[in-house]
Amino acid sequence: MINIPKEAQKALEMLNSAGFEAWVVGGIVRNSLMGLDVSDADITTNALPLQTAKVFEGYHLIETGLKHGTVTVIIDGTPVEITTYRTEKGYSDGRHPDEVQFTASLKEDCARRDFTINAICYNPAEGLMDFYGGVQDIENRLIRCVGNADKRFKEDGLRIIRRLRFASVLGFEIEPVTKQAIFANCHLLKNISAERIYTELNKLLCGTNVKHILMEYTDVLAEIIPEILPLKGFDQKNYHHIYDVLEHTAVAVENCPPVPQLRLAALLHDFGKPATFTIDNKGVGHFYGHDEVSLEISKDILKRLKVSGNDYNLITRLVKHHDTFIEPNEKAVRRAMNKHGEDFVKMLLLLKRADNKGQNTKDFDRTDEYNSLETIIDSVLEQNQCFSLKDLAINGNDLTQTGISPSPLTGRILNCLLEMVIDGQIANEKEILLSKVAEIQQ
Length: 442
Description:
By secondary structure, the chain is an alpha+beta fold. The chain has helices at residues 6-17, 27-34, 49-55, 106-111, 134-139, 149-155, 158-170, 176-185, 194-205, 210-216, 218-221, 245-254, 260-268, 273-276, 290-304, 309-321, 330-340, 342-357, 367-382, 396-401, 408-422, 430-441, and strands at residues 22-25, 42-45, 60-62, 70-75, 78-84, 86-89, 99-102, 121-123, 127-129, 142-143, 173-174, 278-279, 285-286. Strand 12 (278-279) and strand 13 form a beta hairpin. Helix 12 packs antiparallel against helix 13 and helix 18 (342-357) runs antiparallel to helix 19 (367-382).
């Protein structure tokens, strides 16, 4: 059963009623066959772009893709992309076709598509149309190029990381010939914009099969993040660890919730280890200061990937503090949440849990410690304990009423009171706080 959104169904019916062929294609068919959620739908048709526009006369049309055959129709507030059957020639920039020609053949249109699982078409009247064995590849959980894999990747280098992303997200294996072509052409990733790489990398990292992809395709990923190569096979020589640095990293990424910023922080958190490795006189390996080196490496990588300011700040903070110890007691938790905010502390704990999973959990398991820490965090929040100025029982207006004019002194007094509350020296009660003001001024 192919789950076609009602807006796409309406588009199919209108094109058919006008005498044209029309099929849903790509992700909608693939996901439906796999029992996954369907979010949007692409439609392919033998109607030429101007004919498509005529069929949907009266609808809001977006024609920015017109020269490549795409008309986006807004139906009931939802955009539906409708593209004319086409063939493509020449990819001089290794990304976009130099020439697009319209065709009357659905098979020719499918021949230009990237993967067999994305080249399956469907319409309710005729059922599935699968020229290149995509249905069987789904059944076999296999990712394979349409036609010549080497040619497909040379046409568009982005397909290389898209292939890895699909393998990670869907848990599919990559067909051997396709795999060989990935390694042979991975240098083409250098031609792809940082923004597109970052989008695909985020999706790849959030896949259920991410550990396998990081381990199996390290050399491919090194084309966009060369700093990953020193991690490969690096023996940590420390009883806390049972994996080399790369596998430890892959396990940590896999054990994070699938939040892009969190998983990217897990990927980067130990990049500084090879550069800081030392061995003591007992033959035990150490990585003193690796968090700071990892932070500097992460900054370079994130700038190169052109991440947003918010992502940059969050990821670098997580990398910087991934080894910061938070004692499992209320005072330490209040201090941590005062410094970093409750959302960051919660996310940092998730990273710490994942980091621990990549260590020697038989002899060095910190799960109980992190469980206690989580319980205390929840307790502090449930009890509305004070750990920030907004939680303090008095504010600047209260100080003004005591005769203290608004000034930098106001802030110093409030922060001093907050410190005392966080440390448990005094209760967060208005009368008690005000009674301490004169003492603080002395």
